Amino acid sequence: MIQLAVIGAGYWGPNLIRNFNQIPNARVGYVCDLDTTKLAPLAAQYPNLHVTRDYQQVLDDPQIDAIVIATPVSTHRALALDALRAGKHVLVEKPLAATVQAAREMDATARAMQRVLMVGHTFIYNPAVTKVKEYIERGALGEIYYIDSARVNLGLHQFDINVIWDLAPHDISIILYWLSRRPLRVSARGNSYTQDGIEDVAFITLEFADKIMAHIHVSWMSPAKLRRTTIVGSQQMVVYDDLEAAEKVKLYDMGVERLALNADTRAELQRTYRVGDVISPRLDVVEPLRVECKHFIDCIVNGATPRTDGDAGIAVVQVLEAATRSLHQGGKTIEIGA
Amino acid sequence: MIQLAVIGAGYWGPNLIRNFNQIPNARVGYVCDLDTTKLAPLAAQYPNLHVTRDYQQVLDDPQIDAIVIATPVSTHRALALDALRAGKHVLVEKPLAATVQAAREMDATARAMQRVLMVGHTFIYNPAVTKVKEYIERGALGEIYYIDSARVNLGLHQFDINVIWDLAPHDISIILYWLSRRPLRVSARGNSYTQDGIEDVAFITLEFADKIMAHIHVSWMSPAKLRRTTIVGSQQMVVYDDLEAAEKVKLYDMGVERLALNADTRAELQRTYRVGDVISPRLDVVEPLRVECKHFIDCIVNGATPRTDGDAGIAVVQVLEAATRSLHQGGKTIEIGA
Amino acid sequence: MIQLAVIGAGYWGPNLIRNFNQIPNARVGYVCDLDTTKLAPLAAQYPNLHVTRDYQQVLDDPQIDAIVIATPVSTHRALALDALRAGKHVLVEKPLAATVQAAREMDATARAMQRVLMVGHTFIYNPAVTKVKEYIERGALGEIYYIDSARVNLGLHQFDINVIWDLAPHDISIILYWLSRRPLRVSARGNSYTQDGIEDVAFITLEFADKIMAHIHVSWMSPAKLRRTTIVGSQQMVVYDDLEAAEKVKLYDMGVERLALNADTRAELQRTYRVGDVISPRLDVVEPLRVECKHFIDCIVNGATPRTDGDAGIAVVQVLEAATRSLHQGGKTIEIGA
Amino acid sequence: MIQLAVIGAGYWGPNLIRNFNQIPNARVGYVCDLDTTKLAPLAAQYPNLHVTRDYQQVLDDPQIDAIVIATPVSTHRALALDALRAGKHVLVEKPLAATVQAAREMDATARAMQRVLMVGHTFIYNPAVTKVKEYIERGALGEIYYIDSARVNLGLHQFDINVIWDLAPHDISIILYWLSRRPLRVSARGNSYTQDGIEDVAFITLEFADKIMAHIHVSWMSPAKLRRTTIVGSQQMVVYDDLEAAEKVKLYDMGVERLALNADTRAELQRTYRVGDVISPRLDVVEPLRVECKHFIDCIVNGATPRTDGDAGIAVVQVLEAATRSLHQGGKTIEIGA
């Protein structure tokens, strides 16, 4: 039985407690938050759950194997380092940290302490996302050309981080997972319309080797919600629309088949478009957060490396940091270092 | 009765002939193309239409008042200049010219010759686009924040121009018309995947004064067709989806109403989102090309300035030229001169 | 403080407990079910909730003001009569009873005992449904012509009742509420494909005075879920699509405006269609079950008659009974008595 | 070369002329209409086309092989009989005739004269409809359970026929073609709201052997256009939505897999739903009317029986006649004779 403590009782905390408690060999023993009004209902709902404002008490409890950090990103580094140094395994909500340096320090500490460090990029445990990964891995799309993603809606502005840090971690983590690569260059443009210094609209471009591109549009200021990603390959194409109730993934058997060059006259150049069937695959009906929680427990038990480990978390923060830097420099291209 | 000659019998030529011939005080007297196989069916369909390969014959005919140029963009300048110098009024298919310099030369010649020069930005005559313009003009959207537009589908690659020159003239002309402004800066990123040197995917950013932004995504390589533009204002927002059969324009009574700052604690900051009715206005059922053709005839008859005059045409070419330059310089920001 | 007991811990029971417990002047004191495996998790979740298999114990407790019956329909009559005779107010899940006779007996008993009897037609507390009612009441639709409703999906077959008794109570209760009338005649056709004697597909017609018609299609065997109702009036029309995330109700300013009769030639008869704006009104964001629960408490406290009282419940059962009888007689028209 | 005469220059006439003239071995020699204002534009457009008000002139011309009748249904019988007796092949617009008796007389005359009689059920030549037929023929759907079809919109009221005769021929012809069967019984309910005696809304039920059902809803009075047909089979299901631009046909790998009966307790009965992939097949891009016209020419040339022959036309009229009779008798079930 793995005993956990959840730090942060805001939006994600209660969901994490519910999901971990439904895994047979896991149990949440503590929830910790500075705001006691958030702790009271959890205490009422889970009679065996300890609620506390004192993080050190949690760290000192030898029964606790793992710490789940669901607090604002600015606090991730300190909380995670303390937990790792106390010998606990750590699951951190996305993004891993507020800076690449912090993320690297957390990863290095986890390695030094031989503890599991996992970041909660939930979409990597979403059946729609893993189905697309499966298509890419078995070559169904051919060579990947570009990915275009939009994640926009009205509302839920944050006050401490801009829209890139709030929404783009989803798209970035998905794209890096699908491509199994890191971008060479990042650029971004955007603006803050309702709050000084906190951008609420942004357009981000990622450039990879082999001419692969990815573009991400995030906004807190759009009237109609969109959660839509297109992946264009040389053989087939995919649209993943997370708002579709029944057909979230569509695989299009489409492509530009042949480019017949006519030596004599440019006017007779011919392309042939291939337009075939569209398949919307059956997807497992599971709560991605449940899969994520179970994966964390499995990694602890089996000593395995999480699918969203420290490295994956660092890579996402690298892009977030570069995108924000580019945005503040008028869209300048930022090279991603090694 | 205004007598016209249509130059170019490709895709647009026959549509232009059909529309002009249905206007009471207009008549197409000539159609001219180098490819006689395109002329034959038009000759069969319109017994009174002269078909010819000889442009000079058309220019020499004093009965012809106006020339309609529906040929590849690289030929626009020469054909238009000859027509204007021959004293003809000229309607040129979009974009006006292949370079800003050529566009300016055409505009200057039209002014010198006191002839109408109009560019065929058809969407400016589309009831959906003019309805949105109406909303903006009467302040229904409040202050405009940003515009996001996507025009993507599979196919119809061009061989002489990239996807920016092929598809973006629509979005650029619409955006400049709505905003009644010209951008200060343009940047673009994109790639060519199926033909060397001809980009088939691009993302373009336009920056205006007052922090107004516009973003345009164009692609010939996308599995699911999109023709969707979002306009976000401080008071209301609009989505214009040209693929909707019945509700192309939707006006959302939405906004971020109030930002209550609490001096003491960041945690109690509050935004209030206003979410009201959605209205999809009745739109006139007209063929935009018909409205455009009629407007050209009216401008000739009344000596009026077209809504899409040489200036409007130059402005679009400026953005196209800047976008392509930016794209070839890795997304560098290009300042638009006076 | 109104103390309640919930009978039945299946699908609806836990939702009812959660909602009643969130109303300030209500508290669920008991949950009662024969299946103790369903009681255990509720006991764990609500420390102050008594769980029991013994209905009599609940009836005998003088602290309990009201009984909420969420059991299979065949048990409604006996459970409700016992509760009313014990002096309790009663809320019964839809449909009110398995026969009109039982429903009438329950209503008469409630009147005799001067207790509130309410039936859980939840959709009558749904903001989309009440918005349409508001349109009808203020004459926005003009004279109502007909209503067409579809409620189909794959799955959730019942074993004791057919698809009419399972799904059509929603549509029937909505339609009778909107029209403030009862049908004169009912007919239905359908078939059982996967289980003998339990129809899984049906088409029901309701005929009202003044030529008003309603048609309801219900199915457990349809690949794509539909929850869509059209209301056609002489002045305006409405589509209510419960699956739409954002625009559930649309009011169409449409109609057949004028019928110009030409005495001379039938060929020149002319109709004029009026096609105006479409409005999708803002709807309150509330859980309809919460509104329903609160309404029940208010009726108990204030001695008011519920919007979905015994009479409304009887009317729905009349239609269900007539529809099933018609279906079993090959679609014969069944007259609804006084 | 097959020479044709088109009778009726209303909506369908010009489309038929255009399509026949694009078939290499066909040519339209005459168009005949009593209204000369409809003839004039056709004369202008087709210099070699004879226009006339005199049907006898057409019948007397020995060059004319076939007559295409695109006039109101009440005139079909007389025009077709004259043509067949003059030795011409005949294509009649749907429905074949205004009564079953007339349709049978036409069919018998065609057989006696050994001439092709074909009815213009265009949807039978639509690639979406033939794709579904292909699925049914190869058993992909298993046993067919029921079909549900809606064809509604605002407008285009007819003055001489009701909405059943106007819109339902499409659905009836499609359903009979898919099932390769004729219904045993037909019933219908509907009402006339805007014109006395001409129903503008109707609901039709067809009952076939083996418990197969079909339901058709047609209306001229509905705010949102629908052209949607669901086919439910024991193995798979199909939705055919003619308004979808790109994915008109969807094949759902869905069904009720197994019904596990538990002898002891009804409460533990279990159904297993199978929910698999959804496939939207590539469809040929052709104009169905072109395919229909070509098929007529081929049948004349090869002496073949049309896919939509007199028999098919009679079967549709039988259902139309029965449906109208049922509607006028309050929904009474009408048996279809041999």
Task: Kindly describe this structure.
The structure is a homotetramer of 338-residue chains. In chain A, 33% of the residues lie in helices and 31% in strands. Chain A has helices at 12-21, 36-45, 55-60, 76-85, 100-113, 127-137, 163-179, 288-302, 310-328; strands spanning 2-7, 26-32, 50-52, 66-69, 89-93, 117-120, 144-154, 185-191, 201-207, 213-219, 221-233, 237-241, 249-260, 270-280, 334-335. Chain A folds into 2 domains: 2-121 and 288-308, 3-Layer(aba) Sandwich (Rossmann fold); 124-286 and 318-335, Dihydrodipicolinate Reductase, domain 2 (2-Layer Sandwich). Chain A has a 9-stranded mixed beta sheet. In chain A, strands 3-2-1-4-5-6 form a 6-stranded parallel beta sheet, sandwiched between helices. Chain A is of the alpha/beta class and 338 residues long. Chains in contact: A-B, A-C, A-D, B-C, B-D, C-D. At the B-D interface, loops of B face loops of D. Strand 14 (270-280) of chain B pairs antiparallel with strand 14 (270-280) of chain C, so a sheet runs across the interface.
Observed structural traits:
homotetramer; 338 residues; alpha/beta; Rossmann fold; Dihydrodipicolinate Reductase, domain 2; 2 domains; nine-stranded mixed beta sheet; six-stranded parallel beta sheet
